[in-house]
């Protein structure tokens, strides 16, 4: 199967060249870009979002985008600005993080709008890792009606290490309320030192496992999960918790959190299968 | 320039070593010059390398700064700060270093908005300009340097865009770094002396990076390899020079020790040999380390040994020759040569050491007779005995000289007349005690000694001593004398001395001056009848008007052996008298002639010439002192020759001395003249007179014509007549008269000579 897909990828490579970079000014002085891979109009467009502090050039995401386009899906793969003008590089953990979940969700909304402006009325949100969480946060807000489904790969909550999340949240809320602008350095996701504004960190810290699970349950669109069997970044029991959600979930054997290597094709295959199911399923 | 004729080997060695030193110094100088050239080239290369290195370092620093600027310009977080500069200081002071964008805390960066204003004031220690230079182009990178309180700062400004197309200019970034530390801390600086690098920049002056390099001042770091090379070369040259000097010194010392000194020793040895100085022990001489020289030394020493032996032998022979040359072979005493040398030396010594000197002259009495009687061998023995006796009698340091024949002499130093006479008496005593009888000589053998003395204050007369001793010796020989005579004192009176001296002077002057010998003629009468038959020419010497008689000068003639010279003078005078024509023709003349003169060619030649008068004046030769004839055959031959020219030969003074009959027998004698002492015997009628008478008769019977001379009394005359003696001569009948008187007498008497 993998070999077949590889041959397919190679034979349709000219079609992949049909792409464009879309750019939007998210906030004053803050522009962000996205790669738009044109697919078949009959198929839903996919908004594919990268992981924590990454860009669309991240290997897993880029491969998946190409694979989906090859299958005829139009794919918009944005790079979140993280409040950096024309961000093109992965943002270092130690950089000044002035972004927050709200900015991320807003930018996702802007890109959904952008897809709609391109005539796509059926949009499937596909995210990887923290991108899956940010898309879920978007779904928790007021998602556009054109969004029809959600595929979360390696979905993960906003991990804060060993810190007491409620205490941290409380502390951060105090800072925010006190308009204390000093950067707060905290463990977040895979960043051991993550300097951030209090409100930015607070916006992410609030997304613990419970809130994720709640967001999944309350998702207005169909949810599909693709998880790696060997994902070491996940908290213990997270997969079981997700399984209790009774949402469609594929666990890729042997795959890590990043679904890299040969598992990139597993991710593509399962994503395509999910997209097939989404297209065949009646809309809510 | 004149080159020396010869140079010593040491000078050659010094010249060679000096030349070698000069040559090596030249080579060393050339090497040093080449080294300096190489060093200069290396320094130039080093300087070029340093220049290239500095240029590269500056370029590298600028490139690195530009790279940092580009990275910063394209860094997302830079753009973020230009848009949201809330946490700009965190980014500036911490984030750029943690991210690795700037890797050195000495490198600072700052951001400026699009209008060129600084986002946030910089800390004091790294103050950044509040505004970018107005001259800076907004879309280009720009770099400049400025002197800030003595430290040069490099600023590099770069634009920051919000998009990749560099359309939307967000602002500018500025990198500041301390230029010199950044430049010199590069690990690739090997050729530059980092302490020498400086930038000629005035305080506050701004310098574009494009104009940077020409303003840099620097010098090359000394190349350690080059320094090591120079050090090694210098040390090598120095060591070589020191080694050469030490080697030259050692070579010179060795050369001096092994060659020069031995050669000098050999040269000194040869010089010593050349001057006759020989090493006392050549075999012990130090050996030489050069085998060839040692061979020469040994050969030289062997040669020296041989030469020394030869020299010793020659010295011995020379001494022998010298001794022989100065020694009389017969008697063993010193000879005349030694006498002359010693006398001259002694005279010289007297000039510095005045002293009394006595000169003794010894003469053997009647030695001729002894010699003729007993033969030469015994005569020689007599002389040896005399010499031995005299030597024994003399003092230890006195020398005896044989002057010739039987004449000896000695001179006594530091003596007095009394001591001299005492020594003379001792000589005579020892001689008297000598055993001449062992030789078969029965006659007494004695010596006459003449002494002359010169006091220390009369040394100017030292040269007169031999003559004075001669006179004294003549005096001593006078009959009745003591046989020892001291000149001028006890043996002769002063007047006699004067006479003696006067007679001697007269004799010598007469021999040199023709005419001084004056002939007196005494008639010889035939018997019986007493008629004058002929005249005997008798010699006198006319000296300052006085007439010196024969008894005064004949001893001098005899002692000085002047018989021949005197006879020649007589013959000259007789010839003159006969040639004068004063004597009437027919007057025969008899001439006295010493037996010693007969064998003299000049005498014979003169007699032959005189024989021309024989026709008018029959000539007779009266041979005196026949005992002195040594060459009997030769005399006989000459006499025969003379007889052929009509000379008649007479033997004079027969009966005196030791005139044996042998002469009468051997010689062609026509007339025998009886000596007056023998004639006087005839006056006594005794046995002696009888013997004489018988002898005369026998002679007459044998055919000899006899002449009795010295007849002074009638008794003797009658006796002579009775004996049948043909002729008579004496004062009884006539006295010798000068020629003029004789001629006048003959003329007055009218008598003519018998022819």
The count of helical stretches of chain A stands at: 10
The proportion of strand residues of chain A reads 15-25%
Largest interface: A-B, 19 and 20 residues
| Biggest sheet descriptor of chain B | 8 strands, mixed, barrel
How is the main sheet of chain A built? 8 strands, mixed
From the alpha carbons, calculate the radius of gyration of chain B and give it in angstroms: 70 Å
Question: Got a strand count of chain B?
Answer: 22
Class inferred from helices and paired strands of chain A: alpha/beta
Low-confidence stretches of chain A: 1-16
Q: N-to-C terminal Cα separation of chain B, in Å? A: 100 Å
In spatial order, strands of the major sheet of chain A run 1-2-4-3-5-6-9-10
The sequence of SSEs of chain A as H and E is HHEEEHEHEHEHEEHHEHEH
Global outline of chain B: rod-shaped
Q: Compute the separation of the termini of chain A in Å.
A: 32 Å
User: How much helix, percentage-wise, in residues of chain A?
Assistant: 25-40%
Unreliable runs of chain B = none
Rounded radius of gyration of chain A (Å): 18 Å
How would you portray this structure in words?
- The complex is a heterodimer of chains A (284) and B (755).
- Chain A has 284 residues and is of the alpha/beta class.
- Helices cover 38% and strands 21% of the residues of chain A.
- Chain A contains 10 helices and 10 strands.
- In chain A, the strands form 2 sheets. In chain A, strands 1-2-4-3-5-6-9-10 form an 8-stranded mixed β-sheet, with helices on both faces. In chain A, strands 7-8 form a two-stranded antiparallel ribbon.
- In chain A, α4 packs across α5 and α6 runs antiparallel to α7.
- The radius of gyration of chain A is 18 Å and the shape is globular.
- The N terminus of chain A is likely disordered.
- Chain B is an alpha/beta fold and 755 residues long.
- In chain B, β14 and β15 form a beta hairpin.
- In chain B, α13 packs parallel to α15.
- The model of chain B has no long low-confidence stretch (mean pLDDT 83).
- At the A-B interface, loops of A face α2 and α3 of B.
């Amino acid at each position: 199967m993998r070999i077949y897909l590889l041959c397919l990828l190679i034979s349709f490579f000219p079609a992949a060249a049909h792409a464009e970079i879309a750019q939007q000014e998210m906030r004053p002085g803050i522009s962000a870009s996205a790669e738009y891979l044109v697919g078949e109009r009959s198929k839903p467009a996919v908004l594919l979002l990268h992981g924590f502090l990454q860009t669309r050039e991240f290997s897993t995401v880029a491969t998946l985008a190409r694979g989906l386009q090859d299958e005829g899906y139009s794919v918009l793969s944005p790079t979140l600005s993280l409040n950096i003008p024309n961000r093109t590089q992965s943002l270092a953990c130690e950089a000044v993080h002035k972004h927050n979940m709200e900015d991320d969700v807003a930018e996702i909304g802007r890109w959904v709008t952008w897809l709609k402006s391109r005539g796509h009325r059926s949009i499937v949100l596909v995210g990887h890792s923290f991108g899956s969480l940010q898309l879920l946060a978007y779904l928790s807000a007021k998602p556009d009606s054109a969004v029809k489904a959600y595929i979360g790969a390696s979905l993960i909550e906003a991990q804060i290490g060993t810190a007491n999340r409620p205490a941290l949240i409380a502390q951060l809320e105090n800072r925010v309320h006190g308009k204390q602008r000093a950067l707060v350095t905290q463990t977040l996701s895979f960043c051991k030192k993550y300097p951030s504004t209090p409100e930015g960190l607070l916006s992410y810290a609030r997304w613990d496992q419970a809130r994720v699970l709640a967001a999944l349950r309350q998702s207005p669109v169909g949810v599909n999960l693709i998880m790696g069997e060997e994902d070491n970044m996940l908290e213990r029991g997270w997969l079981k918790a997700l399984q209790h959600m009774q949402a469609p979930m594929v666990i890729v054997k042997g795959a890590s959190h990043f679904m890299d290597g040969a598992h990139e094709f597993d991710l593509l295959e399962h994503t395509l299968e999910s997209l097939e199911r989404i297209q065949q399923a009646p809309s809510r | 320039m004149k080159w020396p004729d010869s140079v010593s080997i040491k000078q050659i060695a010094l010249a060679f070593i000096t030349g070698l030193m000069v040559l090596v110094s030249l080579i060393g100088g050339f090497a040093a010059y080449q080294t300096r050239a190489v060093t200069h080239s290396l320094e130039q290369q080093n300087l070029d390398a340093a220049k290239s290195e500095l240029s590269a370092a500056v370029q590298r620093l600028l490139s690195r700064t530009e790279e940092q600027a580009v990275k910063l310009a394209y860094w997302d977080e830079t753009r973020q700060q230009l848009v949201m500069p809330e946490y700009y200081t965190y980014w500036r002071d911490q984030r750029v270093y943690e991210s690795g964008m700037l890797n050195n805390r000495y490198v600072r960066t700052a951001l400026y908005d699009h209008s060129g204003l600084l986002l946030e004031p910089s800390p004091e220690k790294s103050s950044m300009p509040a505004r970018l230079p107005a001259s800076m182009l907004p879309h280009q990178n720009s770099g400049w340097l400025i002197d800030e309180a003595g430290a040069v700062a490099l600023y590099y400004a770069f634009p920051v865009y919000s998009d990749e197309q560099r359309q939307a200019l967000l602002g500018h970034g500025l990198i500041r770094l301390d230029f010199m530390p950044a430049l010199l801390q590069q690990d690739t600086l090997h050729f530059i002396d980092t302490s020498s690098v400086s930038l000629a920049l005035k305080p506050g002056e701004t310098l574009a990076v494009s104009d940077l390099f020409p303003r840099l001042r620097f010098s090359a770091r000394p190349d350690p390899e080059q320094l090591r090379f120079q050090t090694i070369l210098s040390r090598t040259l120095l060591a070589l020079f020191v080694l050469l000097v030490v080697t030259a010194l050692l070579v010179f010392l060795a050369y001096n020790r092994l060659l020069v000194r031995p050669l000098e020793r050999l040269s000194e040895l040869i010089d010593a040999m050349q001057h006759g100085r020989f090493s006392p022990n050549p075999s012990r001489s130090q050996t030489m380390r050069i085998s060839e020289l040692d061979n020469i030394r040994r050969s030289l020493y062997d040669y020296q040994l041989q030469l020394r032996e030869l020299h010793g032998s020659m010295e011995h022979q020379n001494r022998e020759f010298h001794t022989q040359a100065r020694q009389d072979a017969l008697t063993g005493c010193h000879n005349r040569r030694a006498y002359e040398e010693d006398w001259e030396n002694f005279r010289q010594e007297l000039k510095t050491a005045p002293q009394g000197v006595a000169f003794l002259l010894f003469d053997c009495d009647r030695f001729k007779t002894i010699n003729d009687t007993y033969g030469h061998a015994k005569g020689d023995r007599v002389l040896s005995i005399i010499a031995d006796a005299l030597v024994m009698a003399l003092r230890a340091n006195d020398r005896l000289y044989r002057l010739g024949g039987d004449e000896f002499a000695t001179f006594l130093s530091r003596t007095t007349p009394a001591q001299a006479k005492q020594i003379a008496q001792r000589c005579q005593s020892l001689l008297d005690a000598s055993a001449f009888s062992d030789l078969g000589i029965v006659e007494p053998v004695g010596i006459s000694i003449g002494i002359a003395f010169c006091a220390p204050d009369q040394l100017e007369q030292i040269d007169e001593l031999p003559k004075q001793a001669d006179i004294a010796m003549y005096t001593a020989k006078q009959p009745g004398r003591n046989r020892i005579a001291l000149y001028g004192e006890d043996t002769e009176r002063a007047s006699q001395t004067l006479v003696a001296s006067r007679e001697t002077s007269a004799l010598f002057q007469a021999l040199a001056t023709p005419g001084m010998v004056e002939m007196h003629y005494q008639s010889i009468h035939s018997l019986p009848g007493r008629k004058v038959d002929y005249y005997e020419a008798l010699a006198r010497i006319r000296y300052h008007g006085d007439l010196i008689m024969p008894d005064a000068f004949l001893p001098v003639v005899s002692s000085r052996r002047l018989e021949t010279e005197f006879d020649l003078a007589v013959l000259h005078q007789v010839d003159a008298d006969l040639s004068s024509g004063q004597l009437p023709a027919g007057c025969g003349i008899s001439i006295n002639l010493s037996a010693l003169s007969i064998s003299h060619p000049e005498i014979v030649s003169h007699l032959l010439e005189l024989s021309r008068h024989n026709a008018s004046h029959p000539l007779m030769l009266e041979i005196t002192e026949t005992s002195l004839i040594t060459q009997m055959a030769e005399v006989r031959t000459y006499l025969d020759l003379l007889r052929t020219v009509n000379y008649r030969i007479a033997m004079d003074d027969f009966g005196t001395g030791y005139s044996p009959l042998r002469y009468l027998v051997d010689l062609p004698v026509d007339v025998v003249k009886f000596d007056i002492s023998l004639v006087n015997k005839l006056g006594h009628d005794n046995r002696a007179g009888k013997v004489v008478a018988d002898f005369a008769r026998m002679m007459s019977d044998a055919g000899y014509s006899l002449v009795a001379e010295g007849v002074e009394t009638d008794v003797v005359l009658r006796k002579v007549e009775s004996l049948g003696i043909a002729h008579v001569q004496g004062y009884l009948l006539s006295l010798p008269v000068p020629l003029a008187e004789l001629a006048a007498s003959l003329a007055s008497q009218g008598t003519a000579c018998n022819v």
